[in-house]
Amino acid sequence: MRIYSRYYRHLGYFKRFSELLQPSGVLVIAVPNYTSTDAKMYGQNWAALDTPRHLYHFSPASMEALALKHGFTLVSKKAMWFDAFYVSMLTEQHKSGLLLKAILVGLWSNLTALLDVNKCSSVIYAFKKK
Question: Which CATH architecture has domain 4-129?
């Protein structure tokens, strides 16, 4: 579910996911990471903070805690490599318009995420019911 951060009543959805998911099923959620390297570099100008489209913002720790609270356990998490470039380009489009800077920020963000997926611009989570 790529649009999870855009729902007004996101807490109720975990309950619904649990009801719908088969015992062997996997819940996959992808959301921007407000603690990512590019988010820290851009601060309040980071394009993925774009309210009203993103109503909630998650870090890897908060997404995992939310899932755990609702009876899910983390199976895996992966980086969404292209999001660092995409979000950086959107941010620069509203700031300076410098495409080269966006590419460099996206590259730096992804390089740091190679060492720690928790620093990636957006993260894909796979959860199973406990």
Answer: 3-Layer(aba) Sandwich (3.40)
